[in-house]
């Protein structure tokens, strides 16, 4: 079954096909683009190491999803990178809270490269020896992040924000937790989560999509066991664990992350994402008075940024940058929220900022990689790029004001610092 | 691509992009005495101009153009310091024309008082630049790269930091910076690049409408690369201890290959086999076979003929890693790579060059590089050059390389 979507602001179509085994595939035709990207992703990430198994809560080592990502590239009969390389493609993978994704970029041999991707992701080859060796490599990856102040400050913030939710854990786990991983753990969890009903293929480029469909049918058509994924449900509290955390590192300037925990229901996510972008921009975006004031007083600089991150059962805003006076930023931010709550949102301003995000959405369609990543991210949230484009078009001040009321309270704010 | 006015106006009209990207570029020599002044200039210019006199007004202007993206900075490319202004607008209404008008305001119509820039802006941005310079240390991998170049090229302009020096900042004031600005506008050309659905004709018309500038006689490209030659007798090793969780190794290798000759394409293929991909000698040897690191790769500073290798390793694995990297160099020198390794490297490079056609910023940078080299190669011609490289060429070109400096931060 294939559905066609038309996004009017960019005047382009895309297709969503569902295969018999439940696998979903999104195709974004990009006429005249030279590169093509295909990504296979499972709705399984670092936060899924705890789940229900036969009625009981089961906890696997932290860093397991990321470990599978590393090891799936290992094949019995060939080297995946070399195979892609032979066909002019480059390949990589990533793991985040909810997703593990594998992809390649190529200009030629589209069908052949698709075959390689779907072949290796469907044929795990884990054994004791190759699992042990990978622990050294991943330990080095973990240590690389240990020296990264941006990474540290972010996870310190999440740990201070969440009591239970597993997004508080490092994506790659720790040198200790990965020691517990064996080839059996990998196989067991691969089998459970790499189910086609829990997966998606997203691609963009100038190619014949029938070629892609036939590659999927050839490589991924076999029957799997019934999909039996019971995800954890958390009784996450409204408030944060603690509202301040600070760590010293070898940096030359103080850094801050202000985290705002969003405990509201995660329904109608497209509208919520669109509305939060606009609200945050109204409060402290580059054209706001607050931004101007902070910049003029040299409390922030161009590194100042904010983002909303969410999944099916969590959400938070991060405000970040370098500053010697992060407390003032927090204070003025809270004041501004209060004053907008009182005065309501100006319709004119709302529309100017809305146009900015429509413009940025349009700009996103310049990039093959950007389109694919955005759609994969949306897939794990249960939405697609069409939903988001409509939300962006339809969102109004009323929606934004509702979200402002339900989301921003003083009890759910964390300040995380890295000091020199 | 049509170059009118001797490479001053460069435009690629293409309809597949949703935006029009435009950059205005000023190429200057990388000189110790001007480097910090030049580096500070974009900070101050993008803070405000006569027509949009505050940062907020500039930002509102961008918002009104459907979230146009604007930035100005300096980059170091070989021994040039390049001041660039970039704007990207959605391909709607007359945004492209407005974008050029805006760039002209920022570049040619800055805000001044008492014969200088605005004191408050200069003072603020001096602090921001100081923070930026101090912040180099925050990214250990990047920092190791910068340090390696600094040590390796201490007697050459390439060893100069492209974003300036903290000790210079104090001496700069609103007047000295403004004078430097006037000198730059007087002595250097502004080159324009455009990628998007805008005809060359319109692009040129808008430029002529908003920029009142005469063409200068400064050298647009520098074909003399004799200064690149340098033979290293012994390897310089510098180790700095900071108590990091992971050691960051950076190795600088002299190649003595002129960037505007066919030899460059040989070096390109050689480097791809050596450390350019996840299928390279370095990646396979150090990571896949020996589990010494998570990241390892090499790239070429084209305009300085240096290959740079970086890896994140344990402190105690230093000696072992260095000797394995040396072994990988020798393997490429002695043609100890398969026909397939070679073919894969060529294919990978072709893909990378073809891929540039999908990235507006990449395309603009490609043509800027061509102008700097005094070459007039299209992407197709570049690919032909890569295809003409042989396995023997790879080995021969690699035989001339020397390890110059190894920097280790741990």
Structural description of this entry:
The complex is a heterodimer of chains A (420) and B (410). By secondary structure, chain A is of the alpha+beta class. Chain A is built from 15 helices and 15 strands. In chain A, the strands form three sheets. A seven-stranded mixed β-sheet of chain A has the order 1-2-3-9-4-8-7, with helices on both faces. In chain A, strands 11-15-12-14-13 form a five-stranded mixed β-sheet, sandwiched between helices. In chain A, a hairpin with a 4-residue loop joins strand 7 and strand 8. Chain A is globular, with a radius of gyration of 22 Å. The N and C termini of chain A lie far apart (57 Å). Chain B is of the alpha+beta class. Chain B folds into two domains: 209 residues, Metalloenzyme, LuxS/M16 peptidase-like (Cytochrome Bc1 Complex, Chain A, domain 1, 2-Layer Sandwich); 184 residues, Cytochrome Bc1 Complex, Chain A, domain 1 (2-Layer Sandwich). Chain B has 15 helices and 13 strands. A six-stranded mixed β-sheet of chain B has the order 1-2-8-3-5-4, sandwiched between helices. Chain B has a five-stranded mixed β-sheet with strand order 9-13-10-12-11. A two-stranded antiparallel ribbon of chain B has the order 6-7. In chain B, a hairpin with a 2-residue loop joins strand 6 and strand 7. In chain B, 49% of the residues are buried. The N terminus of chain B is likely disordered. Chains A and B meet through helix 2, strand 7, helix 4, helix 10 and helix 12 of A and helix 2, helix 4 and helix 12 of B.
What secondary-structure arrangement, pairings included, does this model have?
The complex is a heterodimer of chains A (420) and B (410).
Chain A: E1 2-7, E2 12-18, E3 24-29, E4 36-42, E5 50-53, E6 56-59, H1 64-72, H2 80-86, E7 90-95, E8 100-106, H3 110-122, H4 128-146, H5 149-161, H6 175-179, H7 183-193, E9 199-205, H8 209-219, E10 230-231, E11 244-248, E12 255-261, H9 269-284, H10 289-296, E13 305-311, E14 314-322, H11 326-343, H12 347-364, H13 368-381, H14 385-394, H15 397-407, E15 413-419
Parallel strand pairs in A: 3-9, 11-15
Antiparallel strand pairs in A: 1-2, 2-3, 4-8, 4-9, 5-6, 5-10, 7-8, 12-14, 12-15, 13-14
Helix pairs in contact in A: 1-7, 3-8, 9-12, 9-14, 9-15
Chain B: E1 2-4, E2 9-13, E3 19-29, H1 35-45, H2 55-64, E4 69-77, E5 80-90, H3 95-108, E6 112-113, E7 116-117, H4 119-134, H5 140-152, H6 166-169, H7 174-187, E8 191-196, H8 200-210, E9 236-240, E10 247-254, H9 263-275, H10 281-289, E11 296-301, E12 306-313, H11 318-333, H12 339-356, H13 360-373, H14 379-387, H15 391-399, E13 402-409
Helix pairs in contact in B: 1-4, 1-7, 3-8, 9-12, 9-15, 10-11, 11-15, 12-14
